[in-house]
Design the sequence.
């Protein structure tokens, strides 16, 4: 062998190895914000954000109140989960809010937000949220940022496509992600493999009164598919509601494969005005159902839970023209109606294109009987006849679409981790930006309404990885704020969020901030155990129940020395905050109480129940730094043995008045 | 003695009758600012009542042992409506009488009432600021909390301002109108000689 040749080859090989060390691996697209991004999101000290962003907390069962464009969190607003830091779900007044037909449920999974609208436009009265696991809808009052009502949804499982609302908040909907057997106990105890015969979906229309009170107007019993998301029609399509559904394969195990077999699933169009006509004509059927309705009384700050016994059902198989199916490719997830109400965007989560349906075309196809068949007795509109067009090569894995005020749509793509901007009329892709990482929901302020406020877009991501300082295996979720006021989307801010945000809505701060309640008027407090003047504070024994009528004002409790309580008693501390000024809450906690604390707002009365089990002196104190003498705001309670004769006694060393 | 001119009568009438507004607006205000109260605390004094953040001010002042402000501690709130009614009547009587002496008497009583009011307010403020509960939680040696009579004063973490409210300014206008009448009476013939068209309003010698 030629030695020279060997050297040549060896040299070339060596060179290759050396070069390989220097040759860089391909660089991934970086994430940079540009130009004046910092000043665009900077809210100077003492100034206010432009938008309130009400963000679902997903598996934390709460909502967070965030400011935009700063991304600052102002409040964690407990809805379906107990919140020991303010006593929600622990105080006697709030416990009934979490009551269900399954008893007290301390947690749920809150996915979607709907801010009330009038004529399709935000009105700033309430925010609704859904409980996915134990089906419920909650209503939050946006003047107090407090959960004031929760309605359980019977005959439902996995209340995912909820709480979407109609144009004038006539209805808020709830529909079942899981189909389940309905009816009597016997009807419900069936083998899982009888899914096709026995499992049904339901879509509930919950009426919202002018005062906000919710009641189930009717339930549609549907074929056993999985409902995913929904949007109401608006403008020309007002009177209709659109629900995406998947698993038209009717699989009941290994859904990731078995429910991904058909090329198209459906968007279900519901003519709810038609349903109202049937009800007026007496075609509904009252069926037995058991579900809780929990509502807070403003005057007593106390929630009452009522178990309701029946619900009105309609069967669209018999009552024609209520529902129609529209084929939609690849297990649709998002189902979004544009601001004009003329177009419905379906997002097949396994698709590479985004179909856009035309409401006029759907109506024409229905009028012409232009159906491609039936699915479980329900007419299926011909796909091509309903289609306005498709957004080609938009991205991979479209999930959700929001809209701006200039006729553009923004679709999130989970798989390709990006937001794509396209024109609703021309279906032309205009711009795309990466998200960090794998965006789920996205949100434009007012983007779900007839008049989007525009300006910003927030992407709520499912994967965080390296975006922030690491905190062990469990990370926060990340969100990105984009400026959408120009032709190109621009990344402005990247910020961590609370829980796992799914959908969120944003509303101009000016629509809410001036109606924000500063404190509750003590004159309006009708709580039966309220103490309106310090001199009325007292302790009463009723059998083994001891009721402490306690007042709190800077910087003392009245009474602050209590004796005569015995082991085995049930002690109720009814604490009234006598302050009548903004931002002066008082807290209350007593040693050994196996509950949360109380955080009592000015003018409010809240009750902590406590069962002392050991003899001794128990200190209690104010937990919210209320004043310069907050550390002095404390008291003692003496617990004597069960058989003791220590008389009931309470004192306050009154220094004033 | 000659009567005052028709214009003077009109001005005198207006000066008296505008004081009716005092029954509908506060006449004095106390404003307080502190880092914790960027929105300002206010106390408005009316002829017969107090309004504003009186309870909040009481809540704060109890730390330094100041008295609890309540309407009962001010007998003035019972008599002031009558005093103002008296002033209005006096002005109207002076208008009807139409003599310069009446104008002087009205001005004199107005000034005496005003000074008496300020002295009374000062004495209350002195007592309120000095007469403290010995058991108060916060004691600052040699510190007194007398509110300013008129103007601004810093009291611990508070900036306190005291001054007329709408009603107070109306009384000032009343006084100025009465003084204007006296000036007008002095120069009325000069003016009417210069502007003959005003003779009907001012009279002529």
Sequence:
């Amino acid at each position: 062998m030629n030695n020279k040749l060997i050297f040549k080859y060896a040299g070339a090989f060596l060179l290759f190895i050396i070069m390989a060390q220097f040759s860089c691996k391909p660089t991934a697209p970086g994430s940079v914000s540009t130009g004046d991004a910092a000043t665009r999101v900077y809210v100077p000290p003492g100034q206010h954000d432009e938008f309130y962003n009400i963000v679902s907390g997903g598996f934390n069962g709460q909502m967070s109140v965030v400011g935009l464009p700063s991304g600052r969190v102002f409040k964690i607003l407990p809805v379906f989960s107990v919140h020991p830091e303010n006593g929600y779900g622990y105080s006697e007044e709030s416990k009934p809010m979490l009551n269900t037909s399954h008893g007290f449920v301390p947690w749920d999974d809150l996915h979607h937000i709907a801010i009330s609208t009038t004529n399709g436009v935000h009105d700033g009265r309430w925010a609704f949220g859904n409980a996915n696991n134990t089906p419920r809808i909650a209503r939050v009052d946006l003047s107090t940022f407090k959960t004031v009502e929760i309605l359980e949804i019977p005959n439902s499982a996995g209340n995912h496509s909820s709480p979407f609302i109609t144009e004038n908040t006539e209805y808020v909907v709830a529909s079942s992600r899981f189909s389940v057997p309905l009816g009597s106990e016997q009807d419900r105890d069936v083998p899982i493999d009888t899914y096709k015969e026995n499992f049904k979906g339901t879509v509930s229309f919950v009426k919202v009164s002018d005062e906000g009170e919710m009641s189930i107007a009717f339930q549609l019993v549907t074929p056993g598919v999985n409902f995913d998301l929904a949007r109401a029609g608006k403008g020309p399509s007002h009177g209709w509601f659109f629900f995406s559904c998947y698993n038209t394969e009717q699989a009941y195990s290994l859904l990731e494969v078995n429910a991904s077999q058909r090329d198209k699933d459906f968007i279900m169009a519901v003519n709810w005005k038609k349903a109202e006509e049937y009800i007026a004509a007496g075609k509904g059927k009252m069926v037995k159902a058991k579900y809780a309705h929990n509502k807070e009384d403003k005057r007593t700050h106390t929630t009452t839970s009522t178990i309701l016994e029946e619900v009105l059902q309609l069967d669209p198989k018999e009552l024609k023209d209520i529902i129609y199916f529209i084929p939609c490719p690849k297990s649709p997830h998002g189902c979004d109606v544009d601001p004009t109400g003329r177009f419905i965007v379906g997002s097949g989560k396994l698709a590479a294109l985004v179909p856009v349906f035309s409401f006029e075309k759907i109506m024409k196809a229905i009028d012409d009987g232009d159906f491609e068949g039936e699915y479980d007795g329900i007419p299926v509109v011909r796909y091509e006849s309903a289609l306005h067009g498709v957004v080609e090569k938009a991205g991979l894995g479209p999930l959700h679409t929001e809209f701006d005020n200039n006729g553009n749509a923004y679709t999130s793509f989970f798989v390709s981790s990006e937001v794509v901007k396209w024109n609703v009329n021309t279906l032309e892709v205009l711009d795309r930006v990466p998200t960090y990482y794998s965006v789920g929901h996205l949100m434009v302020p007012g983007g779900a309404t007839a008049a989007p406020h525009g300006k910003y877009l927030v992407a709520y991501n499912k994967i965080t990885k390296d975006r922030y300082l690491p905190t062990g295996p469990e990370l926060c979720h990340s969100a990105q704020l984009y400026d959408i006021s120009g032709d190109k989307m621009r990344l402005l801010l990247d910020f961590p969020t609370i829980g796992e945000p799914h959908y969120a809505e944003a509303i101009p701060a000016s629509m809410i901030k001036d109606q924000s309640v500063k404190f509750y008027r003590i004159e309006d407090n009708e709580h039966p155990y309220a103490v309106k003047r310090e001199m009325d504070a007292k302790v009463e024994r009723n059998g083994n129940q001891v009721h402490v009528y306690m007042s709190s004002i800077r910087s003392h409790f009245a009474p602050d020395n209590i004796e005569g309580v015995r082991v085995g008693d049930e002690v109720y501390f009814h604490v009234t905050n006598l302050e009548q000024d903004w931002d002066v809450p008082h807290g209350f906690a007593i040693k050994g109480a196996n509950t949360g604390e109380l955080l009592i707002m000015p003018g409010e009365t809240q009750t902590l129940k406590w069962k002392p089990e050991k003899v001794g002196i128990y200190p209690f104190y104010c937990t919210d730094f209320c004043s310069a003498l907050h550390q002095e705001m404390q008291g003692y309670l003496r617990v004597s043995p069960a058989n003791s004769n220590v008389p009931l006694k309470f004192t306050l060393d009154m220094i004033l008045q | 003695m000659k009567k005052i001119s028709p214009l003077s009568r009109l001005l005198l009438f207006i000066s008296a009758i505008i004081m009716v507004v005092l029954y509908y607006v506060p006449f004095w205000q106390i404003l307080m600012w502190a880092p914790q109260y960027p929105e300002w605390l206010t106390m408005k004094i009316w002829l017969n009542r107090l309004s504003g953040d009186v309870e909040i001010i009481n809540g704060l002042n109890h730390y330094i042992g100041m008295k609890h402000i309540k309407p009962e501690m001010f007998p003035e709130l019972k008599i002031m409506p009558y005093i103002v009614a008296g002033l209005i009547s006096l002005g109207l009587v002076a208008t009807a009488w139409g003599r310069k002496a009446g104008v002087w008497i009205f001005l004199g009583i107005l000034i005496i009432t005003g000074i008496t009011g300020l002295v009374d307010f000062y004495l209350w403020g002195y007592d309120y600021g000095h007469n403290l509960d010995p058991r108060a939680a916060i004691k600052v040696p040699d510190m007194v909390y007398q509110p300013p009579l008129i103007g601004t004063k810093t009291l611990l973490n508070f900036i306190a301002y005291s001054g007329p409210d709408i009603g107070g300014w109306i009384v000032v206008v009343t006084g100025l109108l009465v003084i204007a009448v006296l000036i007008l009476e002095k120069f009325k013939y000069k003016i009417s000689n210069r502007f003959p068209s005003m003779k009907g309003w001012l009279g002529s010698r």
